[in-house]
Write a structure and sequence with these properties.
Layout lengths: L3 H21 L4 E5 L6 H10 L2 E8 L3 H11 L6 E5 L11 E6 L6 H9 L1 E11 L2 H4 L4 H8 L9 H18 L3 E11 L2 E10 L6 E5 L13 E6 L6 H6 L9 H14 L10 H8 L7 H10 L4 E3 L7 E3 L3 H12 L22
Parallel strand pairs: 1-2, 1-4, 2-3, 4-5
Antiparallel strand pairs: 5-7, 6-7, 8-9, 10-11
Length: 353
């Protein structure tokens, strides 16, 4: 069993997202929690976000459904209903303004039903816990299930998140729709994304990365990585609207997580650097401190920020050669020259073939 504190933080974040989204949406909003289990997540969001006038909570049956029905009955006056339902089929009560898909394992079997049940302009949240597949530990399964080449090692989970986002984007594109991530993140044993689904007005930022010419952090992949989502993981304007709910079970950890999201959103490009990995690549005796690396890269005019994905790691619009130059200079005690901004900054797609 996973420690429930991690799930409590995830639910706190869901409430924050639903609250911020609900303030700009035209109500009354409705929600479908596709795989509710005992209904804890959906009922907390219904009760604490104020974003929804109606919640349908479904599960396929078994002991959890009995508990779900009892829990939902307590909130019938708030618009909660429950049903035993196979979530691979669209719910008859739709469309819904928000659809939440939080399975054990891969969400792929349920995405068609999720999109068929989501209202235009709606909010879709998707979790994947099949990290052995997404993060590259079982590459044949990644290729078979997600039609993608994974990234192995420490950057594998983020690549898994980006592969999942590409799969979500593909389902949207098949319906002439597009996705816009508001918040997409890596946590412990899972990845999760909140995306707005709207009309298809531009090509999706999806592609492969040629690892031999890629200018970002080194990737362990078989020549090509992906195809995956190469666009931003965060909407910066939306992040500014996120607040710690007054009812949060873990307010301080959530505040730290939101702060980290905002910090890294200024350099929201694929993959991150770690001082230990930089030192290993350059054969430095001691890894440079993260704060000094960030400070030096910013002095060069390169947008840089810490990432939520791993403590001590950071994202930057600087190229790998710049990161390595800065790290070498710091290791040797040399002052870093200030370079005018705009020269050689990496873009999210610089590794595309």
């Amino acid at each position: 069993m996973f420690y429930n504190g991690a799930m409590a933080l995830d639910r706190d974040l869901h409430i924050a997202v639903a609250t911020a989204w609900g303030t700009s949406a035209t109500g009354p909003n409705s929600a479908w929690e596709m795989l509710s289990a005992t209904g804890v997540r959906g009922l907390r969001v219904l009760r604490e976000s104020g974003a929804f006038a109606r919640l349908l909570a479904t599960d396929s049956g078994g002991p959890a459904s009995v508990v779900l029905e009892a829990n939902v009955a307590r909130y019938a006056d708030r618009g909660a209903t429950s049903r035993r339902w196979d979530a691979r089929a669209p719910a008859a009560d739709g469309p819904f303004d928000h659809v939440d898909l939080d399975p054990f394992g891969s969400p792929l079997p349920y995405l068609d039903a999720a999109f068929a049940s989501l209202a235009p302009g709606g909010l879709l949240s998707v979790t994947a816990t099949d990290m052995i597949v997404l993060a590259g530990s079982d590459a044949p399964a990644t290729r078979r299930r997600y039609h993608a080449e994974p990234v192995h090692g420490r950057l594998g989970p983020e690549a898994g998140l980006r592969i999942l986002l590409r799969a979500i984007s593909d389902h949207a594109e098949a319906r002439s729709r597009s996705v816009h991530p508001l918040v997409a993140y890596v946590r412990d044993h899972y990845v999760r994304a909140y995306v707005l689904v709207g009309p298809s007005d531009r090509p999706a930022p999806v592609g492969t990365i040629a690892t031999t010419t890629w200018e970002g952090p080194p990737l362990r992949a078989a020549g090509l990585a992906g195809p995956m989502w190469l666009g931003p993981l965060f909407d910066r304007e939306f992040l500014e609207r996120l607040q710690v709910p007054a009812t949060a079970a873990l307010p301080e950890p959530l505040a730290r997580l939101l702060s980290r999201f905002r910090d890294e959103a200024v350099a929201d490009v694929p993959f991150y650097y770690e001082p230990n990995e930089i030192a290993k690549a350059l054969r430095l005796s001691n890894p440079p401190r993260t704060d000094r690396l960030i400070e030096a890269l910013r002095a060069r005019g390169r947008l840089t920020g810490r990432t939520h994905a791993r403590d001590g790691a950071f994202r930057t619009l600087g190229t790998r050669s710049e990161v390595y130059e800065v790290a070498t200079a710091l290791a040797m005690g040399r002052p870093e020259p200030v370079v005018p901004p705009g020269n050689g900054s990496r873009t999210p797609h610089s590794g595309d073939p």
